[in-house]
Amino acid sequence: MKTAIVTDSNCGITVEQAAQLGIEIQPTPVLVNGEQFFEEEGFTQERFYESLTNPDTSVATSQPNPFDVAERWRRLLLTHDKILYMPLSSGLSQTALTIKKMAETEPEFIGKVYALDNHRVSITQKQTVFDALKMLEEGKSAEEIYNWLNDTAACSSIYIAVGTLKFLKKSGRLTPAVAAIGTLLKIKPVLQIQGSVLDKYAQVRKMSDAKKTMIAALRNDLDTRFKALREQGKMTIGVAHTQCKREAEEFAEELKAEFPDCELKFVDPLSLSVAVHIGPGALACGCTVKY
Questions:
Q1: 30, 15, 3, 49: which is closest to 167 by C-alpha?
Q2: How confident is the model over 255-274, as pLDDT tens digits?
Q3: How far is CA 67 from CA 7, 23, 31, 263, in A?
């Protein structure tokens, strides 16, 4: 049985890296003043942030067109028996549920396409891809991989320190009044993604305090919810950011010192689907199970 792996560009794997890994990337549509562009198809992170920070430009992300997804599946099924499709969490986009329904109800895809929703994004979604590749190397079937990834869906956590309230206000996640007060008081919110929505976790005044808060939150997760997996050597950590690579690399070194028993896997840019709400200058860390 030959199985194809398809993920979307929210995982942070580039088209070039995907080619080296032998997987495919479904690009995420980005709307700039209503005009559609595709991440990893000529629309770079740099161009995204240029548009996002332009006060006269409206930027949003969108779902991949189900027709385009289906066409990719049809092409892959000419050379593969099964497909594992691993998109962004349904808690952040309806894409996963839309595509999952298509895989489970369209006769041409039933039993051939396994569309996953294991509630991952960015560095945790990327880990999912590497887990699937490792299991394929061991001879696991598409169904076995799908089941394991579903069973471990709750075994991940992300914390994000936001550099500015401007984009949370712009996306409607903060009212103008709350954003104005927060800006005046120099508040930096720490957000969390516990497998689903982007939600409030804490608020601090300085990025140094935000980093301490995120480290403490990660430590709590690893000492409680994920204690057994950590003791088995099955928990990884990672860092993500929006246009602050140097700070992210420094933060990664801090995490390696704090959690020497957990493999640090990735230091990556955050998904555009998250970045559109938080803007540049954000720093994040997360932990996730590995196969």
A1: 49
A2: 999 999 999 999 999 888 88
A3: 16, 20, 18, 39
**Helix ranges restricted to H, the chain:** 15-21, 45-52, 66-76, 95-105, 122-137, 142-151, 166-170, 176-184, 207-223, 227-231, 245-258, 272-278
Calpha distance 210→179 (Å, rounded):
18
Q: Residue 223 carries which side chain, given as an amino acid letter?
A: D
- Cα–Cα dist 18/40, whole Å: 11
Q: What does the alpha-carbon distance between residue 164 and residue 143 come to, in Å, rounded to a whole number?
A: 43
DSSP at 23? -
Q: How many CB atoms lie within 10 A of CB 133?
A: 16
Angle at which helix 95-105 crosses helix 66-76, to 10 degrees, equals 50
pTM over the 0.85 mark: yes
- Cα–Cα distances (Å) from 241 to 158, 245, 253, 274, in that order, read 12, 7, 14, 10
Span 149-187, pLDDT tens digits: 999 999 999 999 988 777 776 655 554 544 444 554 467
Strand partners, 289: 235
